[in-house]
Amino acid sequence: MAPEEPKLRRTAADWEERYVDGDTPWDTGMVDPALRELVEAGCLKPCRAIEFGCGTGTNAVYLAQHGFAVTGVDYSQLAIEQARHKAAAAGVAIAWQAGDLAEFAAPAEPFELLFDRGCYHCMRRAGLLAAYQAAVGRLLTSGARIVILAGNSDDTQEGGPPKVSAADLCGDFQKLCRIESLAAHRFEDLGGKPGPLAWKLVMTRR
Ligand SMILES: C[S@@+](CC[C@H](N)C(=O)[O-])C[C@H]1O[C@@H](n2cnc3c(N)ncnc32)[C@H](O)[C@@H]1O
């Protein structure tokens, strides 16, 4: 088992500050290749989708452009404001919500897809795993697909995103979800360069 990283509790204000300061290395402006592949291969079909921790909305906009009815939630007001501009420029309608996804009320019709690039691992490291799991249980319908991209503890480089082992990742979701696939992935850095080692986890909500 990988050694536990120290808890790093970031508040909504901390995240806002990072967007205000432009300290957002994850915000490449490029659609994540893992999401693109799943959509282009027809593994994810248009449906009611939510992105947890959507940041400035690049992946949410991509999903909307491909026929998904998208809701994007993020702590940061500024990120959501930028996401709104991105969606307007792309001519797509997205329901944006600035706030804590742990407090996001269950919709009348639960979501059929959850996409998450980098939010799960942050909430886990902040000691908020139970809140994350509760949101998955509350907001998604049975049979919903879940795609999570998270830092990989096999990465030997210091720094970078929070890292999770395969065993911990599977353990966090095995009660709530059926795991379809778990594969190594890479977050890209600015300019599309291969960046930190990651996981691509695809699951179905039980
Ligand atoms: C590493 S960033 C990734 C952003 C985006 N998914 C991307 O790929 O550009 C993690 C994001 O999760 C958001 N976040 C973390 N905890 C959250 C929470 N409890 N509720 C809503 N957003 C949260 C942060 O504000 C931040 O934008």
Topology summary:
Elements (H helix, E strand, L loop, with lengths): L11 H10 L11 H8 L7 E5 L5 H8 L3 E6 L2 H14 L4 E4 L12 E7 L2 H6 L3 H11 E13 L10 E2 L1 H8 L3 E12 L5 E12 L1
Parallel strand pairs: 1-2, 1-4, 2-3, 4-5, 5-6
Antiparallel strand pairs: 5-8, 7-8
The structure holds S-adenosylmethionine (SAM).
Q: What is the CA-based Rg, rounded?
A: 16 Å
Q: Which CATH architecture?
A: 3-Layer(aba) Sandwich
Determine the CATH topology: Rossmann fold
Q: Mind telling me the CATH superfamily name?
A: Vaccinia Virus protein VP39
Which ranges are low-confidence, i.e. pLDDT below 50, for 5 or more consecutive residues?
none
Strand elements, count: 8
Q: What small molecules does the structure contain?
A: S-adenosylmethionine
| Percent in strands | 25-35%
State the share of residues found in helices, binned by percent: 25-40%
Provide mean pLDDT, rounded: 95
In terms of quaternary structure, what is this? single chain
Domain count: 1
By helix and strand content, what is the structural category? Answer: alpha/beta
CATH class: Alpha Beta
- Cα distance spanning the termini: 26 Å
Shape: globular
- Number of distinct helices: 7
For the biggest sheet, the summary is:
8 strands, mixed
Report the order of strands and helices.
Answer: HHEHEHEEHHEEHEE
